[in-house]
Amino acid sequence: MKYRVVKRGVPGAEPEDVVKKQYANPVNAGKLTIKDLSKDIAARTTLTRGDIENVLISFVEGLPTYLKLGLSVKLGDLGTMRLTLKSEGVDEGMKFDASKIKGVKVIFTPSTELKNNLKDITFEEERK
Predict the structure, then answer these.
(1) Structural domain total, the chain
(2) Please, which of 82, 110, 112, 116 could form a disulfide with 72 given CB 3.0 to 4.6 Å?
(3) Is the pLDDT of residue 14 over 80?
(4) Do the strands 73-74 and 20-26 form a parallel or antiparallel pair, or are they unpaired?
(5) Domain presence at residue 49
């Protein structure tokens, strides 16, 4: 995987104490679409590209429903998706209600298998 070096302020430092340090930033090599994934999977299986594309599209369309029901969606050796909430805090003794909830965020937790499969990754600095 290619990376580039970027300068950033140290997280948590006060503005007057800002010292820039160098950090690695991954280089985006492009994007794969559902169509691209479908072609790749079809080339490695007996399924057709159309069948695979239909399954992937149906999954993407159904996922919000499962998450809204409060379900965690385990995707085998890929990982798990779930929702978390962002809300205002309310002092103890005060009533908390849904108006204090300000948003939802989708959390993806990679499986142990996926993490293990990424352990052998190698890094190369992007040439300018």
Answers:
(1) 2
(2) 82
(3) no
(4) unpaired
(5) yes
